[in-house]
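Build the 3D complex.
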Amino acid sequence: MEIKWRHDIDQVLKDAKTERKPVLLDFSAAPM
Amino acid sequence: MHVREQAADFKRFGERYGAQWTPTILELDPDGMEQHRVEGFLETPEFLAQLKLGLGKSAFKAKQWQDAERQFREVVDRFGQSDAAAEALYWAGVSRYKATGDANALKETAAAFGSRYSGSTWAKKASIWK
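Done.
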């Protein structure tokens, strides 16, 4: 199961609603 | 989203979803409703087991009983040593009961706890089905 990480969260939530897909929302403090 | 790289989003969505610690991973349904939460770091197998458990919970809330059972059974089969497995076994039994209306699904689940995860909270919860 591939996870396509995105950073445009508002758009992600809109797309999820339209495409009926679940979302993983990651709150992170890990070094980038 | 990163606490520093996306500070504004982190604050806004952290408040919306009550995320007050990192790492926190939320599984949301397509309408943005939280289905499952993983707080704190987990090694990969434990993390994957939690994600799969969340998919099962999401299907369960949608009353997709067969899909829910399949997701929960996969947690037990693939990640049987994980902390999520006992909870998944419990909900797999409930999902089968919901799908079939057959109380034997609950009895069989209680019996299964006799040989696995017998010290878990989920085994105690299932004990009423014996």
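The longest strand of chain A covers residues 23-27.
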